[in-house]
From TrEMBL:
Protein name (record): PHD-type domain-containing protein
Organism: Chionoecetes opilio (Atlantic snow crab)
Every PHD-type domain range: 19-84
InterPro entries (alphabetical): Zinc_finger_PHD-type_CS, Znf_FYVE_PHD, Znf_PHD-finger, Znf_RING/FYVE/PHD
One Pfam family of this chain: PHD
SUPFAM superfamilies noted in UniProt: FYVE/PHD zinc finger
Amino acid sequence: MMANPYGIFPTMPTNSSTTLLCAQCKKFFTYMDSVVLCDGACKRWYHSKCAKLPDNKYRLIQDRDDNRSLGLKCLWACKDCRDRPDTGRDPEFESFVRERLGKLSQVLEYLVSKIQDIENRQKNQEVEMNKIGNQEFISQEVEEHFMMFQ
């Protein structure tokens, strides 16, 4: 597990009620520890190693401000909070997903119509090219025919 590249407790509040103990192993956090806050009901801090959080997920959670600007919501909940039956769904997130799906559906419909327009134009151009090709062939035949009589 990598050391905390974000400085000491990057998102940990500094008020006096904050505990500096990992909720899992009950050991104090150090400057070199990677720590993560449970976004579930308990709001407890964990060593990312104790939380069994891979480095890539840890970085994703720590970069949550950047991810929010991209429209992503990066949350982590400890096992206790995940196992609680009352955690329920996140209506804000579900609304966000429905809104994005609606927009994606509109974009997809637009793109499909544009593809159909392009395909139709291509077919029309092929027909026109065939007509031109036939006219050129006929012109060449007529020209050759006249040349024979001269």
